[in-house]
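Write out this protein's structure.
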Amino acid sequence: MKVTILQFPGTNCEYDTQNAFKSLGAETEILWHKSESVPSDTDLLVVAGGFSYGDYLRSGAIAKFSPVMKAVIKYAKDGGKVLGICNGFQVLTEAGLLPGALKRNESLHFISKHHHLKVVNNDNIFLKKLNKNDVINVPIAHHDGNYYIDENGLKELYANNQILLKYCDENGEDKNPNGSVDLIAGVCNKERTVFGLMPHPERAMETLLGSADGVKMLQGFLEA
């Protein structure tokens, strides 16, 4: 499997992401933002975390105008698999590939810690190796992770089973770290080909480093 990972000025998780997928046996390539095409052998395109363009204006708002994004949008529209992690999630919402938007955390502070998540829907390649209602422990690190969508949009997400993950505590009870609507931590598009989440599964690959719960999350893509 070939995983292509986007790199913008300010991206800081591309090598963590590369290491995570390599550890699972995938071939990887890092793609600079000035590229005007996605490699033809790409099986999964990852928009990695960080602070693209310094998060000026809004997180992801400038990155969506990078030359590579036209190719990313075409790749997604043609049915290609795309995963946006943290800043990558922000970029995908700004580009219109995922519904909703990411706002400043309710506390107005940057949050960096492990946080539990509940699996809401696993009828997709991303979370198929996990069970519905599983509670996993994955790092979060963001200043603008407060997911927002209006009432009609939220109803549509529920109707189409597009909500993937919600924030919770170790017992699966509600625990919201950033103010996200309905505790939403990750969503997908209607076609279940584009996925976005604020937590960092690529940083949860080894128990020694706090959690290996990211392994099953990313493995789903390799077995698609």
